[in-house]
Specification:
- 47% of the residues lie in helices and 19% in strands.
- It has five helices and five strands, in the order αβαβαβαβαβ.
- Strands 4-3-2-1-5 form a five-stranded parallel beta sheet, with helices on both faces.
- Helix 2 (23-39) packs across helix 3.
- It starts with a helix and ends with a strand.
Length: 111
Amino acid sequence: TQSRSSAASDVYKRQVLIHAPSSAALARARNNVANLLKVRPDAHVRLVLNGPAVAAALDGDSHDTDALTWLCPNTMATVGREVREPMSVLPAAAILLLVQWQSEGWLYVRA
C-alpha cells in the first residue's frame, strides 16, 4: 500500500486549476496558489478567473501569481478591458476550458 505522504506527493505532481469567479475568491485563490507552491514548487498551476475576479485582478496591484493567471475572454469583452502582463487571456471561454482540462486530468479547486 501507498503511504499517506507518498499519496499526497502524487497529487501535487498533477496539474491544478484554481478557479476564482469573484474578487473575494481571487484573494483566496492567490493564497491557495502561494501556499501550494511553497510546499510543492514543481506543481503546475493555472489560476483561472472569470466574472468580477477579472476586473479585481486588473484593477489591483501586481501580484506574485500574475504569471499563472488566465482571464476569461468573454469577461474581458464584457468589461472592455485589456490584459495586463504577465497575466494572459484564455484562448476560449473559461467554462469550456475548465471542463476540458478536468477531462484531461487536471485537478479543480474553486476558491
